[in-house]
Amino acid sequence: xxxxxxxxxxxxxQLKRIYTALNEALDLTRQLADAVDRDDxxxxxxxxxxxxxxxxxxxxxxxxxxxxxxxxxxxxxxRLAALLQGAAAETAAETPLAEQxxxxxxxxxxxxxxxxxxxRKIAREKSVYN
Length: 130
What we know:
Number of helices: 5
Number of strands: 0
Helix content: over 70%
Shape: elongated
Distance between the termini: 62 Å
Order of helices and strands: HHHHH
Structural class: mainly alpha
Radius of gyration: 18 Å
Largest sheet: none
């Protein structure tokens, strides 16, 4: 029978919030990479602090998803958990959710990769001045 439409919709809303926050963080991290390349201290500090907002939004959305999972029947909670881990959709109703999760995972990977590059650059800058 599958999860209720309302449960899928509630989860999708949070996943869209996650996507928006990941994109904000990605954009700020790209700007941060440029600032590090220019050795623009003021921008580096500003952009680093600006990244806190999307990080907070991500945490809030993940918390909402966890609360939602706890409110579902065990079978539905298990199914939602599987989808969130990247399981394929089993019904047409699950498809939009599965697609959003896939997009989110790709965006997160981009963010993590770029973040790693920026952190390496910043560490190298610091090591030059030590």
